Each structure stands twice: as C-alpha cells, then as structure tokens.
Amino acid sequence: MEYIKIKFGSDFDAVSSGFEKSIEDMFRSINPIFTLCDRAWNPQMDIYETQEEIVIRAEIAGVNKEDLEVEINSKAVRIHGKRSEMSRNENATYLLAEIQYGCFERILFMPSPIDPEIVSASYLNGFLQIRLAKLPTNIVHKIPITDE
After folding, report:
1. CA-based torsion, 39, 44, 86, 63: positive or negative
2. Which of 6, 12, 14, 5 is nearest to 116 (CA)?
3. Could you tell me the residue ranges of all domains in the chain?
4. Is the whole-model pTM more than 0.70?
5. pLDDT tens-digit profile of 69-90?
6. If you ran DSSP here, which 8-state letter would residue 65 be given?
7. pLDDT per residue over 100-147, tens digit each?
8. For residue 4, what are the contacts with CB-CB under 8 A and spacing of at least 6?
9. Residues 6 or more apart in contact with residue 75 via CB below 8 angstroms
10. Radius of gyration from C-alpha coordinates of the chain
11. How many other CB atoms are there within 10 angstroms of residue 91's CB atom?
C-alpha cells in the first residue's frame, strides 16, 4: 500500500504575501509562463465540515502521489506538489491549451482547531481527500485555587 506523505508541524514556511500574489496574478494574465515563485497553479478545492470533522477535497488530476505532500498543524493544512507536463505533439497546432502544469501550493486555515493526530488522506480518480478531526471546544477544565 502506498501512502501520501503527511508532515506535522507548528508553523509553515513563509506564506506568499497578498501583494506578491497580486503582482504575480497581474503578470500571469499577460503571460502565463511568468511567476514570481515556484507556484504555477492553484488546484480547485472544496472544504466542508460536520460536527466531528473537516473534510478537504482537492482536484489534482495528473499529479502522482509521489509528487504530493500534505503538512498539517492544529490551525492549517498545506498541500503542495507538482504536475509534470505531458509531452506535446511538435507537428500539431494547439487551438486551446488550458491545462496548467508545474508546482502548486495551497495553505488552508481551518475554521476551528483540528487534532493533528487524527488525520486520513486518500487519492482516487484525481481527487485528494483529507479528513481532519476537530478538537472538542466545549471541554471545561477546572482550575484549583490555592492559598499562597
């Protein structure tokens, strides 16, 4: 059985600033080859939650599991990987070329704390699904009061 690599951590590497992303998007609209960072495309994702868990579903068709990595902490999930470009026919004139290739990265901040010890990930038919257990928020801790 092959596994998707999941790392646990307390903080992620520097996240691209909104300003850098705006400039990159502006230049990418002029020429899709131009990027300021390694990220070349953003896969589409769905996130939903139930009372017990948060589920992330990412559309990443064509990405090999070996080129995919998921990192989590109690506040966020980072999904990054690479989709290799398929060989092009040199004798053909492309009328449409919309499929994006290269590296991607998504950092998703969770709406409630998650338990990084209870996580599962699966990859089927081009969809990555990550299930994250929520930490209970209604637990009350009684604090003893002592005389000093």
Report:
1. positive
2. 6
3. 5-11+41-84+99-134
4. no
5. 999 998 999 999 999 988 888 8
6. G
7. 999 999 999 999 899 999 999 999 999 999 999 998 877 777 888 998
8. 65, 68, 69, 70, 121, 122, 123, 128
9. 109, 110, 113, 114
10. 20
11. 5
d(CA 97, CA 92): 12
Closest-CA residue to 121 (of 11, 6, 43, 44): 6
**Cα–Cα dist 146/129, whole Å:** 48
Task: With residue 88 as reference, give the H or E element that holds it.
Answer: none
Amino acid at 110: M
Please identify which residue in the block is written with the tokens 């699904």. 129
- Alpha-carbon distance of 37 to 59, in angstroms, equals 21
Run of H or E including 138: none
Instruction: Give the ranges where the chain is alpha helix by DSSP (H).
Output: 18-30
From the candidate CATH numbers 3.40.50.720, 2.60.120.560, 1.10.510.10, 2.60.40.790, the one assigned to the domain spanning 5-11+41-84+99-134: 2.60.40.790
Structure tokens at 131: 């299930």
